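Changelog-linked ticket: magnesium ion example.
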Amino acid sequence: MNRISEIFGKKVFNDKVMKEKLPKDAYNALRKHIEDGTELEGATANVIASAMKDWALENGATHFTHWFQPMTGVTAEKHDSFMTPDENGGVIMNFSGKELIKGEPDASSFPSGGIRATFEARGYTAWDPSSYVFIKGNTLCIPTAFCSYGGEALDKKTPLLLSMEAINRQALRLLDIIGSPASKVITTVGPEQEYFLIPESLYRQRKDLVFCGRTLLGAKPPKSQELDDHYFGAIKPKISEYMEDLNNELWQLGVLANTEHNEVAPSQHELAPIFSTANIASDHNQLTMEMMKKVAERHGLVCLLHEKPFAGINGSGKHINWSMATDDGTNLLKPGKDPISNTQFLLFLSAVIKAVDEYQDLLRISVSGASNDHRLGGNEAPPSIISIFLGDDLLEVMEAVAESKSSLPRKARMMDTKASVLPDIKKDTTDRNRTSPFAFTGSRFEFRMAGSLTSVSCPAYMLNTIVAEALRQFADELESAHDVEASARELIKKTYIRHKRIIFNGNNYSEEWVREAESRGLLNLRTTVDALPYFTAQKNLDLFQTHKIFTKTEVEARQAIFYEEYCKIINIEALTLLDIINRDVIPAVSSYISSLAETVNIKKSALGSDIACKAEINLATLLSSVCDALYTKSHELENALAESDDAQMNEESARYFCDVIIPLMTEIRTLADELEVNTSSEFWPMPTYGDLLFA
Ligand code: ADP
Ligand code: MG
């Protein structure tokens, strides 16, 4: 046995452990519960809980927690010990079925978007048996959904689970109609996670990184990523050790961490797991992010998960690879050998095309947030305009279908590898377009707008829901067809023609595309504040209601939480920037100016008044005037912040933060960066970009 298989899933109460630890009927009941939600009887739940507890104790755990994903972006847990006092003044270890299935954390400090008045602060957590229980540290973690007293979802897991049910319902209907019935359709997700690692000692000296997770100022270093020498470069020993340690932790937790490599920006890396069911992928990605941070500490490093820690350098994304599969493992987005005659594939593909075109707004919203706004449209990041890349071959297929053709002249597409020792590689039918926000990559779509901090759940539930709606309409239409095959071909053709405008194989980073997209009538929602109002558009409320994902109140609450979070983040950033400018930058530059002036005096008195002092005088003059401008701007920002209505944190205040506060912060940054490049490194009060990125 090799090392990975020895440690893989060691800390997970997975199927193998269940089989081993549970009596046969309890195991069967649990499997049924996992597969189709059949209720567990109280007695059986007790047996399962008790077995979990024994296994947890054997593996060193002392506590348990309901592990959930509130609307904060991080996971939440409240630990209780297994301990119960016995009659003899000692303790026994206890864990009941009730404690496994339901929890009641005090929910009052989690965001609820106004759903939960403080007088009914109660919230409930409910066990999600489709995601395995695991041990983290000394705690048995039970993945749970989190809802209010009234049953409204207050977390990121609930809508994802509901959307998986929705797409399952509709996909099964369609498969049934076209004569290839299945018993279950799941959505699969493989999230590629990008991150930066920097030395902890330097991180501690940057208030902006500590408070905001990103730098708010910092001049471009002499060398950045222009040589592309970091991408896929040899991994430094220190980073290798980190990755090894991280893999170890993740494997034990049953996370299929698979590939790792250096990314484009200096100090940037990526980890991709092998894909799994959307819900598991989402839980595992949360665990991965948590472990990335924790393991970094052990190595004297800090893991930055912010989408844009450094201006002018690539940001970090989280590419959401997404597909649909039946329970026997058939990937519904696999084109097969002859895509043009593969009606089933073309139907599912068209459903995605239709969904993405009709719900561009929801996809944009699913990746929005103050931090990802810095990235979308920046270096190497897809722009805010949603479009689909199909690749030349598939585009050719769709064009032919639109002309009612059912075959293509077969072109062998081989890539000549030049060196004769290398085999000819069959050209990837989906010649990659890294600029596309939503690209077909052979047997799945890759949604590239999600940021490194984005929870997988949000883009995944949006995709599931919008595609479920397209599949629902397809099933409705084909249900009564006499000749299903002919009607399906007609439907594919009609759908493609109607939604073709969303397909774009060109360079998404170009200015021409922005204009072209506008003429095609595609949305260009540049900022979070531009996108959010669409959340509550009637068509979207209808969609969520039809598929039982959200009520109107829940959508409004989620929108309110987005606005609130946006305002809070920008407010913290602005306050941090002011703190740095007033307490660090201006005093440092002043001291340097004073030292320059002193030098002039000393030089003149020691060497005579004719001595050349141009360098000192010019520098001191320049710095003084930029410093004054900076002082004035920071006052402007202070006043603007005082005028912001931070009590409201609604659409209007978010708009104010977006249009007034952010531009002022940008102006301040420009001035501060000018000071940085002209100030002696001895005086500059914090590590520079060069220090942070090339440490
Ligand atoms: P690249 O960087 O070339 O896009 P990676 O190998 O880094 O590719 O990551 C590809 C990701 O896509 C992996 O997480 C992989 O598991 C995932 N993936 C592959 N096939 C599917 C699928 N059918 N459904 C969902 N995700 C998939
Ligand atoms: Mg990748």
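Closing comment: Example verified and attached. The first helix runs from residue 3 to 7. The pocket of adenosine-5'-diphosphate (ligand 1) is lined by residues 188-190, 192, 259, 272-275, 321-323, 331, 443-444, 446 (CB under 6 Å).
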